[in-house]
Amino acid sequence: MESKFIVIKHKRKDHTYISIATSNGYGKGYSNQIGLGRLEKLQEINPDPINVIKNSIKNLSVSESKEKIKQAVMFDLNSSKSETYNINYGINLLYDLIDKFEIFSALPKTRHKDLNRLLKYTVSSRILNADSLISTYKNKFQYENTPDYKKSSYYTLLDILNDNESIILQQLNQKITQNTSRNIELIFYDSSTAYFESFRRTGLRYPGYSKDGKFKEDQVVIGLATDENGIPIHYKLFKGNTTDSKTFIPFVIEMSKIYNIKNVTIVADKGMSVTANLRFLEQKGIDYVISYRLKSGPRDFKEYVLNETDYIGTEEFKYKEQTVASLYNKKRPNGHQRRKIITYSRKRALKDKADRDILINNFNKLKNKDGYVEGSKLLGHKKY
Asked: At what angle do helices 275-284 and 244-259 cross, to 10 degrees?
């Protein structure tokens, strides 16, 4: 007759720990012991976890792996919470979506095939709960049909994704193109930052200008290109102290190489509008639409913009344009012409004025008794 599991309580210092095991007989200890965690943590899931665990282990076989047994018990415990089923509905929808992408189909048919289930769970769990990888592993008992893998497999998955990044990105874009009306002749590019609450600086993590206002934290810079529907095409990570404009050229070179892009127009904001980037695009024959920061322009251009003549339109919206030679430091023409299109929107002007008024009010609030404000307190003031 096969041994049956029983519930065991262990008292250590100020906490009670719960585990399941099979008995070796009176006074002879236990075998097949599997720890489930601290009692108070289990009670956060269900006020009466012991009874739930007892019911769960009734039909469990000792011959199963410890990992699978623990997963079954913790799933039953989490299923006693009503919100568990809501989570499962969401994750199953994400599973179906990821299946359509066939992430590993372009890779050699080795162990990658078995990791597809793990990828689906890891990606979906990250979307539902933005936790760390180790938390994703620990919370796997909350979801139905989670693959029975050890912690090391989660990190192996990351290695495989990193080693085959270009192939996987090509596969994703091919599948998206097949299932949508994607047009990659028009690409939108921008960069952002992601910070880390960490005490150890490694790899790309480095302090830099934070768009999240987390100036004391290490970060990485993320370059991202999307199509006209906002669906990502390509991404690239940069060191945390890389300025926006410095991400542009290496990003475009890598993206063009991976996807063999020929005819394309790139749209970007004024952070990319530096001479080196524009000359690079012109040299490569790549069309572009990039915002221009008026206050950093030369005096003659500012005077041209402020001159009311030659505008076409109404007082609500009007525009004019100017064609100029592509120069470097006001010399060294490369034979290309640039069209500068100047627009005025009354609606946007009112919004910008309201934003400036908010900054002015905040400035006045930050004045000390002598009427001065420390520059470090003026977050966002350089924008104007």
From this structure: 20
> What digits encode the pLDDT tens for the residues 157-168?
889 888 888 998
- pTM (predicted TM-score): 0.68
Q: Dump pLDDT digits (tens) for 168-200.
A: 899 889 888 888 888 888 999 999 988 776 666
Q: What is the CATH number of domain 183-339?
A: 3.30.420
Alpha-carbon gap, residue 46 to 14, rounded angstroms: 20
Q: How far is CA 10 from CA 39, 135, 210, in A?
A: 10, 24, 47
Give the phi and the psi of residue 267 in degrees, each rounded to 5: -110, 130
Buried b (16+ CB within 10 A) or exposed e, 243-253: ebbbbbbebbe
For the beta carbon of residue 128, count every other beta carbon within 10 angstroms: 16
pLDDT at 187: 95
Rounded CA separation 158/153 (Å):
9
Whether 248 contacts 189, CB under 8 Å: yes
Task: Cite the residue boundaries of each domain of the chain with CATH code 3.30.420.
Answer: 183-339
pLDDT in tens, 129-144: 777 888 888 877 766 6
pLDDT of residue 2: 65
Give the separation between CA 219 and CA 239, rounded to whole angstroms.
8
Cβ within 8 Å of residue 318, ≥6 positions away: 311, 312, 343, 344
Residue 23 sits at the vertex; the CA angle it makes with 22 and 25, to the nearest 5 degrees, is 160
Question: Cβ(182)–Cβ(113) under 8 Å?
Answer: no
CB 121 within 8 A of CB 75: no
The better pLDDT of the pair 40, 371 is held by 40
Degrees, nearest 5: CA angle 288-290-295: 150
| Whether 20 contacts 36, CB under 8 Å | yes
The Cα–Cα gap between 183 and 173 comes to 11
